[in-house]
Amino acid sequence: MAAVSSATESNVDVIVVGAGFGGLYALHRFRQQGLSVRVFEAAPEVGGTWYYNRYPGARCDVESLDYCYSFSDELQQEWTWTEKYATQSEILDYINWVADKLDLRAGITFNTRVVSAVLDEDSMRWTIATDNGETVVARFVVMATGPLSSPLTPDIPGLETFGGPIYHTAHWPHEGVDFTGKRVGVIGTGSSGVQSIPLIAEQAAQLVVFQRSPNYSVPAGNRPLTAEEIAHAKATYGERRRLSWRSGGGSPHVAHPKLTMQASPEERRAAFEERWQLGGVLFSKTFADQMIDIEANEEARKFYEGKIRAVIDDPEVAELLIPNDHPIGTKRICTDTNYFQTFNRSNVTLVSVRKTPIESIDESGVATSEVHYDLDALVLATGFDAMTGTLAKIDIVGRGGQKLVDDWSHGPRTYLGLGVDGFPNLFLVSGPGAPAVLANMVLHAEAHIQWISEAIVYLDKHGYAAMEATSAAVDAWVTECNQRADATLFPKANSWYVGANVPGKPRVFMLFIGGFATYLDICAEVADAGYKGFALLKAP
Ligand code: FAD
Ligand code: NAP
């Protein structure tokens, strides 16, 4: 039975923070099971990532047909994606369409930031406070606050003195930006920079790209979906999703059956070529051992290097653009359209700020150790305080006044990425300790919400008031996540997965690397065993 909770109730079963893919499904699912729910969203609208990141070229890098809700076949059948990788605006249209269809808006309080969440141990209730002064009490709190929702602005001397406009890719103006005739500087060459640079270059009079670390990027091969492809996908969605749920990354593609060096050179090349044609980030999963065995990884890297050198005219520019400081795939592979070809244009300059660091910014532009670049506009594609940054902005206070930020001062500690010891009935969605950004995050969010929803049903059915990860379970999970990461090549990179992009952030691999299906199996085993590793608590 669906409960109808108004957006004014001050005492509810569940508070959900965030109205992106995760929070919206949480609202729908909890309502369906008869719980009263309040959702708080800092933005004026739904969408999360896809509400904010409106920079030119913003698209998903998981195929559109997979990067959408699977929980309702009606939704899958009714919505029709137009391109292999949907644009930000199409994804946002989709999220808005779902919100309307499931009547979700009435349950969301927009323009409202949750500033604190405090546990009352006597009543085993959470009180959340918002930036507009409201307080609401709930049995459960679900943090669907997003792993990539706290944009980072670099600490460059004089940034605030720049005379022209400064745009962060994650806070792009809704009306768009016209760079025609302008001298533009872009700082940052991660996925956001790599997607936006080619389009900015087409418009701007001059573009200067300030690159600190070169990144691996594989062409998206984006194109319109044909009517036949859409009909086929809709007719076979069940199987497509089944494969995705059983996969390492939440999409229906499987690695080559042999290990890299077991395949003959011809087979190897053909497998890499097939993945190259598939496009984008999945290149890192061509062979199952590619992210574990450095020799295997080197084969992928050599194939990659050949492809990229072939499209860059100037060998010196190619040398700067091809990474040599981390194995391929140990940072998220970017998914681009004409990124490397952009550096063949006469109006584009690549500046390696490793060789010539940015020293300062002044009213008229950016000064490196060698050159002052006069600029009219500046784009910051400088990423996020990922996984923990957004949670750290909320004053989350658990047992005995313990604060989550203090608990995590040496790195995040969770059990399954879902629960934290000392914080009963507080659940994280796509947080640290889960595969999160290593998987298709729409399915990942669905999996988390389903698990939390079933846990609440279990608690209610068995007369429990709360569940709390035990310290032993958290310690064991943190150890398991570290051990699994250490058995791969991932820790070799200074990536945001390990917090390397945020000065002073503890260096810990923040994700569960064992694969999406393996992770789901572990979560299911825990639930089947009566929530092993969680203490189940009767009402105080
Ligand atoms: P979000 O979409 O980040 O939503 C969280 C919401 O919580 C936000 O709206 C925020 O305003 C709100 N919030 C946070 N704190 C508070 C607070 N204190 N009070 C109130 N509200 C709060 N993943 C993929 O799997 N495939 C992709 O192709 C892909 N592409 C991406 C492209 C970009 C540009 C970026 C930045 C990320 C991409 N991701 C991708 C990751 C993406 O973040 C997830 O896929 C997904 O959209 C996350 O959904 P979410 O609901 O968990 O979080
Ligand atoms: P990012 O990968 O962290 O890239 C940030 C870039 O800014 C890096 O090149 C970084 O250099 C550079 N940078 C940061 N501070 C700098 C400074 N002070 N001076 C010079 N350069 C600086 O962030 P992102 O590109 O926004 O992507 C983050 C994640 O969001 C992705 O990995 C992906 O998961 C997701 N995303 C996906 C897509 C998609 O294709 N669908 C698009 C965008 C984002 P260093 O590498 O040297 O730190």
From TrEMBL:
One GO MF term: oxidoreductase activity
Keywords linked to the UniProt accession: FAD, Flavoprotein, Monooxygenase, NADP, Oxidoreductase
Highest rank taxon of the organism: Bacteria
Cofactor field: FAD
Tagged with keyword rRNA-binding: no
Gene3D superfamilies to which the protein is assigned, alphabetical: FAD/NAD(P)-binding domain
Enzyme nomenclature, EC number: 1.14.13.-
Family: Belongs to the FAD-binding monooxygenase family.
Protein name: NAD(P)/FAD-dependent oxidoreductase
Organism whose genome encodes this protein: [Mycobacterium] crassicus
